């Protein structure tokens, strides 16, 4: 595990974007596993800048996103599909047919999850998986539980996750209670994992995830045994990590 300490959110974002840009430069047909949420927004801004400057090209890139709310269509402004269009895909030359997000509009969970696993299998391993972390230690929407869920599955979101995500909705009642998420096996099979964390609310869970026991009660703790994990924390998120 490599821990990089950034001085600020902007610094974390620039460093994270540089790692993803290097991945695309070294392997133009990279399969990226991408995340939504507040954490990667700055990374996507920097990637768009690098694209506009001609430094990176998404022509042959594929993106397989981590998760999606159940019940939200693509055109719902809080869907993760929509988030990805607005924050990255609309601004770069990625081909729409190379972009995948679990189908939240399909209420048949078995079908939606199997279809996503089929897509993942078709591509084999993800080259670089970008992750944020929830205050309860979730990665993707793999919430704390008794076991690590391996494949794409439906989850009931924890209260803390609904609380954290309500900022994007009119009220917490509007936050969907269920989501489809890529499983832990798919995340762990990625060749490289890049975990980003920013802000004081992530400080305690970052310590638990990276230095506590490996347990499905803290889903991100499994990353300790990933062979190629890079973590970038800003000052606040890194405050409880050992020197
Ligand atoms: C989003 C995702 C989630 C977020 C996590 C942190 O696709 O998979 O695990 O990364 O909830 O969210 P933010 O970045 O908003 O703090």
Structure description:
With 243 residues, the protein is an alpha/beta fold. 32% of the residues lie in helices and 16% in strands. The chain has 7 helices and 10 strands. The longest helix has 18 residues, at 9-26. Fructose -6-phosphate (F6R) is lined by residues 35-39, 66-67, 80, 132-134, 138-141. Fructose -6-phosphate binds at residues 35-39, 66-67, 80, 132-134, 138-141.
If you compute it from the alpha carbons, what radius of gyration comes out, rounded to the nearest whole angstrom? 17 Å
Q: What is the first-to-last residue Cα distance?
A: 14 Å
Work out the helicity level: 25-40%
Number of helices: 7
Number of distinct beta strands:
10
Q: Which structural class best describes the helix and strand composition?
A: alpha/beta
Strand content: 15-25%
Q: Could you give the order of strands across the largest sheet? A: 1-10-9-6-2-3-5
- Report the order of strands and helices: EHEHEEHEHEEHEHEHE
Main sheet makeup = 7 strands, parallel
List cofactors, ions and other ligands.
Answer: fructose -6-phosphate
Return the average pLDDT rounded to an integer: 97
Low-confidence stretches: none
* Shape label: globular
Spell out the key features of this protein.
single chain; 7 helices; 32% helix; 16% strand; seven-stranded parallel sheet; alpha/beta; three-stranded antiparallel sheet; binds fructose -6-phosphate; 243 residues
């Amino acid at each position: 595990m490599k821990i990089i300490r950034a001085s600020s959110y902007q610094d974390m974002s620039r460093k994270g974007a540089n790692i993803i840009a290097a991945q695309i430069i070294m392997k133009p047909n990279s399969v990226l596993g991408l995340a939504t949420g507040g954490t990667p927004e700055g990374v996507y801004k920097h990637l768009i800048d690098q694209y506009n400057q001609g430094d990176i090209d998404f022509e042959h890139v594929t993106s397989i996103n981590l998760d999606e709310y159940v019940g939200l269509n693509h055109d719902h402004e809080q869907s993760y599909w929509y988030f990805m269009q607005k924050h990255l895909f609309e601004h770069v030359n990625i081909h729409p047919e190379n972009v995948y997000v679990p189908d939240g509009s399909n209420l048949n969970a078995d079908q939606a999850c199997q279809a996503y696993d089929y897509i993942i299998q078709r591509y084999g391993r993800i080259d670089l998986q970008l992750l944020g972390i929830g205050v309860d230690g979730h990665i993707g929407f793999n919430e704390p539980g008794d076991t690590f869920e391996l494949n794409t599955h439906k989850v009931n979101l924890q209260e803390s996750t609904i609380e954290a995500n309500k900022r994007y909705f009119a009220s917490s009642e509007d936050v969907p209670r269920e989501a489809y998420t890529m499983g832990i096996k798919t995340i762990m099979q990625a060749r490289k994992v890049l975990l980003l964390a920013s802000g004081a609310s992530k400080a305690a869970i970052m310590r638990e995830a990276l230095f506590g026991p490996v347990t499905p009660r803290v889903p991100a703790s499994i990353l300790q045994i990933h062979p190629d994990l890079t973590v970038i924390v800003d000052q606040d998120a890194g405050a409880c990590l050992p020197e």
